[in-house]
Design brief:
This protein has a single domain, classed as Spore Coat Polysaccharide Biosynthesis Protein SpsA, Chain A, CATH 3.90.550. α1 crosses α3. By secondary structure, the protein is an alpha/beta fold. The chain is built from four helices and seven strands. Helix content is 32%, strand content 18%. β1, α1 and β2 form a beta-alpha-beta unit.
């Protein structure tokens, strides 16, 4: 069987909540306050867009909640070359599954990520796209048991269904699903998400 990713365009889809007080990064409110948590959410979103564009691996898309035309996004100015889409209904798995299927059916490979991991630098995003091209799937686990990035050249609903999102079991269960499917996957470096007050020590020094 040939390389499943050969010559495919790789689309990076960034899932994000509108960086509004009381809506984004709410678990950081005890440490930063609602306004501070929202400012950090905006900074992480802006940095992820910068990194994904600079990686130059293919199109960059921001998959938004609420929908892109909602008032919550009114003061967010996005780079002109970033596509926008709505996350739609359902849990995180259902939303990611739809996005992945849409891209793969269009003949693209896809990197699915969020905005919670400043360690997903331009270099790491580029390396993930290269691993995706070589192996057909890539995952960046996080220290809390989740993952910061999932890259696919083919998809199956089992990768997203019945996963206990926001728990320490997410990455392990996802890797077990790859085993069940018999699909090879590149397991890249473990990174750190910024979700809880204790995670703030992982922010880049210049952000603190």
């Amino acid at each position: 069987m040939g390389n499943p990713a050969l010559m495919r365009t790789t689309r990076t889809i960034i899932f994000a909540k509108a960086p509004r007080p009381g809506f984004a990064k709410t678990r950081l409110i005890p440490a930063l306050g609602a306004e501070g948590a929202a400012r950090l959410a905006r900074r992480m979103l802006e940095q992820m867009l910068i990194n994904a564009i600079a990686a130059a691996s293919g199109p960059v898309e921001l998959c938004m909640t609420p929908d892109p035309d909602a008032l919550e996004w009114r003061d967010m100015i996005l780079p002109s070359d970033v596509a926008i889409s709505a996350q739609g209904e359902g849990d995180l798995g259902e939303r990611m599954a739809r996005a992945a299927q849409r891209c793969i059916e269009a003949g693209e490979a896809v990197l699915l990520t969020g905005t919670d991991c400043p360690e997903l630098t331009t270099i790491r995003l580029r390396e993930a796209a290269e691993a995706l091209n070589r192996v057909g799937a890539v995952i960046h686990p996080t220290a809390d048991g989740g993952y910061a990035l999932l890259g696919l050249t083919r998809t199956d609903l089992r990768l997203f269904a019945d996963i206990p999102w926001s728990t320490a079991a997410v990455a392990a269960m996802t890797l077990a699903r790859f085993d069940e499917l018999g699909w090879p996957v590149c397991v890249a470096a473990e990174l750190h998400d910024i979700d809880e007050p204790g995670d703030l020590v992982q922010l880049p020094a210049e952000w603190r």
